[in-house]
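Key result, reporting period 2: structure in, sequence out.
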């Protein structure tokens, strides 16, 4: 078998090429492409009266401080997404603590306010939680919860898409939303805010679900959380803001139509409310449920993305 034939038929290589293509769609050699995506987030924030919560890896903040500071100046809420984008469950408690302390130092040095934390790859263990507790974060949002609302699309999508989707799902190890209440929880001195799945990456990159259907999925979760009086934390990575802008907009517009209303809040606001001792109702001001839009800033350039391989 010649090499070209082998490469073309190799599933691993084909996947690599497909992933490279998706990467090039998201990031450029300079941060210009991501800046454009982040500006789209700023516009949505202002236009839709949102308060986006964007966790950012500290090394990205260190490399591109002006871009991240601009987000804060324009009313976007930021949080810590580790020092580097790595699987922290592979590090000891001491190492995790060291990394998060270093991340905090960088945030402080750059004048970026933060109250919360989300682990890279949403991978955490008890040592991660102990470090979060020790460092005095107000909230943590790495525990995932899965809304199984995709049955209607099962037949219309190729089997290989489902396989790719299930593979990531296994990595995330979520709890089932139909078996547990989906609400924040007080854990010692911080508030744990569950992150809803499927996220944008699962729907776009793995499942290749058409945009119209992505909107349907989000609307289904929104109405389920409303019926149950619970929380929908919608994760869209900022590099997909331009691509999913209309879908995000329509979910917000739909959320504003409910009566009693849906509280559209940032993760800081949710944690502050949930931690209040004198709170008499589940959500403030007569709201029946809560919606928050969040998205991790993992990289601003292709260089940032590839440096992750080396833990940098
Ligand atoms: Zn991430």
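The corresponding designed sequence is given below.
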């Amino acid at each position: 078998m010649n090499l070209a034939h082998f490469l073309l038929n190799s599933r691993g290589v084909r996947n690599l090429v497909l992933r490279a293509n998706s990467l090039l769609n998201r990031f450029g050699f300079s941060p210009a492409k991501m800046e454009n995506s982040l500006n789209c987030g700023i516009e949505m924030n202002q236009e839709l009266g949102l308060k986006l919560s964007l966790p950012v890896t500290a090394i990205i903040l260190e490399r591109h401080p002006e871009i991240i500071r601009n987000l804060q100046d324009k009313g976007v809420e930021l949080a810590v997404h580790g020092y580097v984008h790595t699987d922290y469950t592979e590090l000891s408690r001491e190492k995790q603590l060291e990394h998060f302390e270093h991340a905090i130092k960088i945030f402080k040095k750059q004048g970026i306010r933060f109250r919360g934390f989300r682990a890279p790859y949403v991978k955490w263990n008890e040592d991660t939680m102990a470090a979060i507790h020790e460092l005095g974060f107000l909230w943590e949002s790495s525990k995932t919860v899965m809304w199984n609302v995709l049955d209607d699309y099962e037949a219309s999508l190729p089997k290989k898409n489902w396989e790719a989707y299930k593979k990531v799902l296994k990595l995330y190890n979520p709890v089932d939303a139909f078996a547990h209440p989906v609400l924040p929880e007080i854990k010692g001195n911080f508030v744990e805010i569950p992150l809803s799945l499927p996220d944008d990456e699962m729907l776009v990159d793995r499942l290749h679900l058409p945009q119209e259907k992505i909107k349907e999925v989000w609307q289904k979760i929104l109405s389920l959380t409303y019926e149950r009086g619970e929380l929908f934390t919608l994760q869209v990575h900022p590099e997909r803001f331009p691509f999913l802008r209309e879908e995000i907009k329509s979910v917000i517009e739909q959320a504003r139509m409910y009566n009693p209303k849906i509280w559209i809040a940032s993760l800081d606001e949710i944690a502050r409310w949930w931690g209040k001792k004198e709170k008499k109702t589940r959500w403030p001001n007569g709201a029946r449920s809560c919606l928050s839009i969040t998205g991790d800033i993992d990289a601003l350039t292709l260089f940032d993305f590839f440096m992750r391989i080396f833990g940098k």
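The chain has one domain: 29-310. The pocket of zinc ion is lined by residues 81, 85, 120, 296, 298 (CB under 6 Å). This case is discussed further under Risks and Mitigation.
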